[in-house]
Amino acid sequence: MTTEFRVCDECKMVNVKTLVPRLKEIEPDCTMEIGCQSYCGIGFKKHFAVVNGRHITAPTEDQLVEKVKKHLKK
Question: How far apart, in whole angstroms, are the C-alpha atoms of residue 38 and residue 35?
Answer without folding.
Answer: 9
